[in-house]
Design goal:
Blueprint: H1 16-21, H2 35-46, H3 56-68, H4 73-84, H5 89-99, H6 110-119, H7 123-130, E1 141-142, H8 143-152, H9 165-178, E2 183-187, E3 193-197, H10 200-210, E4 214-217, E5 230-233, E6 257-259, H11 273-286, E7 292-294, E8 315-317, E9 339-341, E10 363-365, E11 387-388, E12 390-392, E13 410-415, H12 435-440, E14 449-455, H13 466-475, E15 484-488, E16 507-511, E17 530-534, E18 541-543, E19 573-577, E20 584-586, H14 596-608, E21 618-622, E22 638-643, E23 651-654, E24 660-663, E25 679-684, E26 687-690, E27 715-718
Parallel strand pairs: 4-5, 5-6, 6-7, 7-8, 8-9, 9-10, 10-11, 12-13, 13-14, 14-15, 15-16, 16-17, 17-19, 18-20, 19-21, 21-22, 22-25
Antiparallel strand pairs: 1-3, 2-3, 23-24, 25-26, 26-27
Helix pairs in contact: 2-3, 2-4, 3-5, 4-6, 6-10, 8-9
């Protein structure tokens, strides 16, 4: 290991002995939490309500436990979580008298405490936690995948027939998180936990309690005990060679789990058919009791029909094998299959035609299968499906296949058939969806969907009829629980009326809807946090129904209503991009025949009376050459303005060498919030401007007279990534007004 002179090596360890043996010059013992901090943390974890602290006995026991934990946060959290579910004085006394003496007071106090907490788990949590042992340390554990694996092994206990396995599994996951056996959870944009990690010491406990049934196989593994049921593979990257089954595994006939937990690609080397068939044959002949088979990202190009012999299989992961083109129809003879992962099998052309036979299938993941253009008929008979991220309408199926799939959760992309504009008669014309089919899709009953995307593609149908297309989209009305809506490639003039009733939307993304002229009102949605409008060439005003001023009688923001109606009360991110005809947020009351100077003065006064975004954090305005006004943005931290294509200039200057500099027509963009350390990036004809340096005040237009941004807040920085030609000379800032 090399390093420059003066470099130092920092070693962290839990034991003083390791530090001493390493010959470290200086030791820095890290102290635990203070008594006060330890007690504060324990109170948060162990007591449900403040009045419980009035129980002197429980407080006394709690302080004894805290003392035993020696200021170690993990130990305090785990024991506090354990006692959280014990409500009586007798239970606390029993824990102190029977369990606390088992914890030896030595340097390695944490592991015994963690093991003690595990011993108090109910049986269902014990097996679910122990199963986590074959994730690598510091691995990001995908929650949905983990619950699917628990279900595959029937670790989930259902107390009544109305419960769903995944819902109960989610409760198990939350309980392990509450007990601090999971940590570092990640939350998605809708507030769902999507992943977590395990502390290294927690992982050690999982390995300790599962050692009789689970094994991590690596290069040093010489043999596999016969009682091992669950195997995970920890081998180095296979980028330069095909993968083979580790030899010690070939004698372990009782294996039920064959799992690759590590993240990243393993093999980019393609197999020949003979070698692939040999690997599959060994799996099928040796591991006949498999419940879980994970072969993701191993470079396979085929799936042989012999896979149907794995009759106990409930979880099959073939994702990331980009060479797979087809699946054998025999795969539908797996009677117990619950999860089929095919994500990013980019060459996959079709699904098995008899897929309706997989009646127990609950999760079908086909996102990223770009070669897949159609879905087999009969998919609608899989009424247990909870995960179907993409549904492609084609010659073989109809939108009505979605009718009875009311258990769908999470995200769904509906990709409608498309047709080339060239109208090549040699190309088979896809059957476009009809109104009746759209109505039968019954999207309004799919109350568990959180994200819905409609993709009409970049082409139009030969027999395109805007009226019929609008009716189809109108009939695809989703449930009001929806949190994210995306519409891409829609050619209708008006968007569906049901958009106005989706008040729980957190994100709206409209893209390439070039025929759309009028947008629904967005500003009064209480939950909307992200609004992205891209490639809407026919839109002139975001709100074309009012002028937007507080004195405008037609506006929803009149003085009488402003106290009860907030303007975008939750919006944090705004993107307006490639809207070539966009002129402003509201249509101005001024006539086109008025004097330009008078119009400018009146427009300026009207803009100052507009409502402002109350909590906008990031604003991205790109390639909107006719945009002249925006609502005020007093809370913006990051501002991006891009104009790298030809725009209609309103000011032209000369750099002294005969080369023109162009200015955009944008005014009144935001105000002095940048004094608080925010960032402004202005990309203009190959140049970018960002906060942090100094720039001559002569580069500001006269519209910035109310601006409090000082010279030290704004600087010029070349945008090296730009592919557009640069205008020579000193760049001139676009006409941006920072209104106080």
């Amino acid at each position: 290991m090399g390093g420059a002179r003066g470099s130092k090596v920092l070693i962290t360890t839990r034991t003083k002995l390791v530090a001493t043996v390493s010959g470290a010059n200086s030791l820095y013992p890290l102290e635990g939490l203070s008594k006060k901090e330890s007690w504060s943390l324990f109170k948060q974890m162990a007591f449900k309500e403040e009045n419980e602290l009035q129980n002197a006995c429980r407080v006394e026991i709690g302080k004894e436990i805290v003392k035993k934990c020696a200021g170690v946060p993990l130990a305090i959290r785990v024991l506090g979580s354990l006692l959280y579910s014990r409500d009586t004085k007798e239970e606390w006394l029993s824990f102190r008298n029977k369990d606390m003496p088992k914890i030896a007071q030595d340097e390695n106090i944490v592991l015994p405490i963690l093991k003690l907490s595990y011993d108090h788990f109910p049986w269902h949590l014990k097996q679910c936690f122990a199963f986590c042992c074959f994730y690598l340390k510091d691995h990001v554990i995908d929650k949905q995948q983990l619950i699917q694996l628990w279900c595959a092994h029937r670790f989930i206990g259902l107390s009544n027939e109305n419960q769903e396995m995944e819902d109960v599994g989610d409760l198990y996951f939350i309980e392990l998180l509450r007990r601090s056996f999971f940590q570092d959870e990640r939350i998605d944009e809708f507030g769902n936990i999507i992943s977590c990690k395990m502390h290294d010491l927690i992982h050690d406990v999982a390995v300790l309690v599962a050692k009789s049934e689970s094994l991590m196989v690596n290069l040093s593994t010489k043999e596999v005990p016969p009682r091992i049921h669950h195997v995970s593979i920890d081998l180095p990257s296979l980028n330069d060679r095909p993968w083979e089954i580790p030899a010690p595994l070939l004698g372990a006939i009782g294996i039920r789990t064959f799992f690759w937990p590590a993240q990243g690609y393993y093999s980019t080397v393609s197999y020949d058919v003979e070698r692939e068939n040999s690997v599959y044959a060994k799996i099928v002949s040796t591991f006949k009791r498999l419940r879980v088979l994970d072969l993701h990202k191993l470079g396979f190009q085929t799936v042989p029909s012999c896979i149907s012999k794995l009759t106990h299989l409930r979880y099959l992961d073939l994702s990331g094998n980009s060479g797979i083109k087809t699946l054998p129809n025999s795969i539908t003879e797996l009677p117990n299959l619950q999860t089929l992962k095919l994500s990013h099998c980019e060459s996959l052309e079709r699904l098995p035609r008899e897929i309706r036979k997989l009646v127990r299938l609950r999760h079908l993941e086909i996102d990223g299968c770009h070669g897949l253009s159609d879905m087999p008929r009969g998919l609608g008979e899989l009424t247990c499906l909870r995960t179907l991220k993409e549904f492609k309408v084609g010659p073989s199926n109809r939108l009505s296949e979605l009718k009875d799939l009311n258990n769908l959760r999470g995200k769904l992309l509906i990709e409608l058939p498309r047709m080339d504009l060239r109208r090549d008669q040699s190309i088979e014309v896809p059957r476009r969806p009809r109104l009746k089919e759209a109505e039968e899709a019954n999207l309004k009953e799919k109350q568990h969907l959180q994200s819905l995307r409609f993709d009409f593609g970049n082409f139009i149908y030969i027999d395109d009829d805007d009226g019929e297309l609008k009716s189809v989209l109108e009939a695809l009305r989703p449930h009001t629980n929806l949190k994210m809506l995306e519409i891409t490639g829609y050619r209708g003039v008006r968007l569906p009326t049901w958009m106005s009733f989706l008040l729980n939307l957190v994100q709206i993304y409209l893209h390439n809807c070039n025929g759309c002229k009028n947008l629904p009102k967005f500003e009064q949605r209480p939950c909307l946090q992200s609004l992205r409008l891209v490639d809407l060439d026919s839109v002139e005003y975001i709100d074309d129904n009012s002028c937007g001023g507080v004195n405008d009688e037609s506006s929803s923001f009149s003085p009488s209503s402003s106290t009860t109606t907030a303007f975008f009360p939750s919006l944090k991110y705004l993107q307006l991009k490639d809207i070539s005809n966009l002129k402003g947020w509201w249509r101005s009351k001024l006539g086109e025949d008025e004097e330009q100077s008078t119009a400018n003065n009146q427009e300026e006064q009207q803009l100052l009376s507009h409502p402002s975004f109350p909590c906008l954090v990031e604003s991205n305005i790109s390639y909107c050459p006719q945009l002249t006004s925006m609502p005020l943005q007093p809370t913006v931290v990051k501002l991006i303005f891009q104009s790298q294509r030809e725009v209609r200039p309103t000011a032209v200057t000369d750099d002294g060498k005969g080369n023109p500099n162009y200015c955009c027509n944008l005014i009144f963009f935001t105000h002095s919030s940048f004094q608080l350390g925010g960032t402004v990036n202005i990309f203009h004809w190959g140049s970018s401007y960002s906060a942090g340096g100094g720039i001559p005040t002569s580069h500001f237009s006269t519209k910035t007279r109310d601006c409090r941004v000082s010279k030290t807040n704004l600087s010029v920085q070349r945008d090296e990534a730009s592919h557009h030609p640069h205008v020579p000379g000193d760049p001139v800032l676009p006409r941006v007004g920072f209104v106080r």
